[in-house]
Amino acid sequence: MSDHSARVALVTGTSSGIGEAVARELLRRNWRVVGASRRSAAIEDPRYTHLQIDLGNVAELAARVEGVVCPLVTDASVVRVALVNNAADPGLLGPLGRIDPVEMLRIHAVNVAAPVWLMGWIVDRTARDSAIRIVNVSSGAALKAFPGLGTYGSSKAALRMAGMVLACELGSPDRPGGPHPNATILSYEPGVVDTAMQAAVRASSVELVPNVQMFRRLAAEGLLAPPESPAKDIADYLDRDNHPRFAERRFGEEPSA
Fold first, then answer.
1. Model confidence over 139-185: pLDDT tens digits?
2. Which of 70, 90, 160, 250 is deepest in the core (most CB within 10 A)?
């Protein structure tokens, strides 16, 4: 493996939005990047590999990641491995009493099961002397209740807690082999960003999302940040050391442990 591949990142949702912007920023910084999304990605770079896959199909995801990503993260020259859990399905807008439970399971497979499995896989497969950086892209809906966003908000809240639990496990003296020497997790809230999810919410009705006018106003007043802004924040975190085991941060704010 060449020198420019000493850092490897797996980024989900790289076909557009924040995921694509993160992948491009990391490539600019000379990372080796594997992207995963349902659609193809418009990224052309010899250091980029794309997995076109439905993250809701966790069994296929496991097989594809094992085959493609494992040889990269276990390479002896790799000194830093990153995971950016960015992909999420904002579907099932509307009151919780009207949510289809079968469809809700599919959303949680994409938003919770897949990223939680990827966190565990990265920690398990990466060499102990390699630094591990995990970023779970979160949302204000993980911390505050928004009418009509129950499925999305609950899935993001679940991922946030899973990251906190993993951080506790990584730091536990009872962990086999002891605490991990250099693995950290960031729950990152990008704020209001010009993404497909924002467009989907704005296109909804008042019956489904009672405060839809708030989302429309943010766009109309030009208050949506471009995806490149949080992408740089995320890449900075992945590049740096001396983080607390678990931290939370909203775009533009200092992290809190």
1. 888 999 988 888 999 999 999 999 999 999 999 999 998 999 999 99
2. 90
Q: Which amino acid is at 15?
A: S
User: Residue ranges of the alpha helices (H) in 4-136?
Assistant: 17-28, 58-68, 70-73, 101-108, 114-125
DSSP labels, 91-110: ---S-GGG--HHHHHHHHII
Q: Look up the domain containing 182 and give its range.
A: 3-191+228-250
On whether residue 205 sits in a domain, the answer given is: no
Dist. CA 61–CA 51, nearest whole Å: 9
**Separation CA 116–CA 105 (nearest Å):** 15
Residue 71 DSSP label: H
- Cα–Cα distances (Å) from 82 to 9, 126, 152, 162, 163, in that order, read 4, 10, 24, 17, 14
Residue 221 located in a structural domain: no
Angle at 60 between CA 55 and CA 63, to 5 degrees: 120
Place of tokens 């086999």: 176
